[in-house]
């Protein structure tokens, strides 16, 4: 059970770092990631041989399509904001959206105590996002236009990625059944976007991002196996511990310069987000 909590966080935490290190354009990052997901989906399906019906196949396929849109927007946001600043916004808003859907539509919050704990967790996550985005030096501040554009991309991305996570569960599609049709939807949508952005396509950049797809596939597979066991809210909540990996790896691996005060604020924000995550995850 512990590994189901850990793998999504590790995979999704490292994925944007790996993608950023390739210095590829967003469309090539997307196609490389989805290509690996499709290959692993085929291998997994040959081994496990799950049984499909039209509804489960369609739900998983559409889930993959929403992922492609959301992930493409997220990759684009990394062109405007450092990963260490973008991922707290992305992870936090996804978590808030997924938690509300799980609570309202899946009825995972069944009494007042759960609601109070969950809402406190959400408020802490919002506060943590604010703290992690603190910038001390005026010369480092992005223009308002650039920052607004990045936040808009991240909010739209989070809406699409929230649907990607919750759609299969809403139709009671299990993890084994999800993986292959979902990967087809991801790859098909990525290919469509690549045709639209064909002037940015570079096969060498796609190949570099096959490793990005490995990190994502590990996270995705373990998440969808965890959901039927521990619920949508809890499984996705703990997967968002990825934000801690993205923050610190984004700073130290990608060499984002931060002042001492900024690092203190980021650490405080990360701690607050973690507390919020554990509060939501503690709801039975």
Automatic annotation (TrEMBL):
Signal peptide: none
Primary location group: membrane
Keywords, alphabetical: Membrane, Sugar transport, Transmembrane, Transmembrane helix, Transport
Listed Gene3D superfamilies: 1.10.3730.20
InterPro entries linked to this entry: EmrE-like, Sugar_transport
Transmembrane segment boundaries: 6-23, 30-48, 54-74, 112-129, 150-167, 173-196, 208-230, 236-256, 263-283
Membrane topology note: Multi-pass membrane protein
Protein's cellular compartments: Cell membrane
Source superkingdom: Bacteria
Pfam families in the cross-refs: Sugar_transport
One example GO MF annotation: carbohydrate transmembrane transporter activity
Cellular component, GO, one term: plasma membrane
Homology family: Belongs to the GRP transporter (TC 2.A.7.5) family.
Name of the protein described by the UniProt record: Sugar transport protein
Species of origin: Enterococcus avium ATCC 14025
């Amino acid at each position: 059970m512990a590994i189901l909590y850990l793998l999504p966080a590790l995979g999704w935490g490292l994925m944007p770092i790996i993608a950023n290190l390739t210095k590829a354009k967003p469309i090539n990052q997307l196609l490389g990631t989805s290509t690996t997901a499709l290959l692993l989906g085929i291998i997994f399906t040959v081994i496990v041989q799950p049984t499909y019906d039209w509804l489960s196949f369609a739900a998983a396929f559409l889930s993959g399509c929403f992922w492609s849109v959301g992930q493409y927007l997220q990759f684009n946001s990394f062109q405007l904001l450092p990963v260490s600043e973008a991922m707290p916004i992305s992870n936090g808003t996804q978590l808030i959206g997924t938690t509300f859907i799980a609570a309202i539509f899946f009825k995972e919050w069944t009494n007042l105590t759960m609601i109070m704990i969950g809402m406190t967790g959400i408020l802490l996550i919002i506060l943590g996002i604010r703290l992690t985005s603190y910038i001390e030096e005026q010369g480092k501040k992005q223009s308002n236009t650039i920052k607004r554009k990045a936040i808009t991309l991240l909010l739209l991305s989070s809406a699409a990625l929230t649907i990607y996570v919750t759609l299969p569960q809403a139709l009671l599609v299990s993890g084994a059944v999800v993986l292959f049709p979902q990967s087809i939807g991801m790859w098909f949508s990525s290919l469509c976007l690549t045709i639209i952005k064909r002037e940015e396509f570079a096969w060498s950049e796609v190949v570099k991002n096959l490793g990005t797809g490995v990190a994502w596939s590990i996270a995705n597979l373990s998440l969808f196996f965890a959901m039927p066991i521990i619920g949508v809210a809890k499984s996705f909540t703990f997967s968002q511990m990825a934000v801690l990996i993205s923050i610190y790896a984004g700073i130290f691996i990608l060499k984002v310069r931060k002042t001492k005060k900024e690092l203190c604020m980021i650490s405080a924000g990360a701690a607050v987000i973690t507390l919020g995550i554990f509060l939501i995850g503690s709801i039975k």
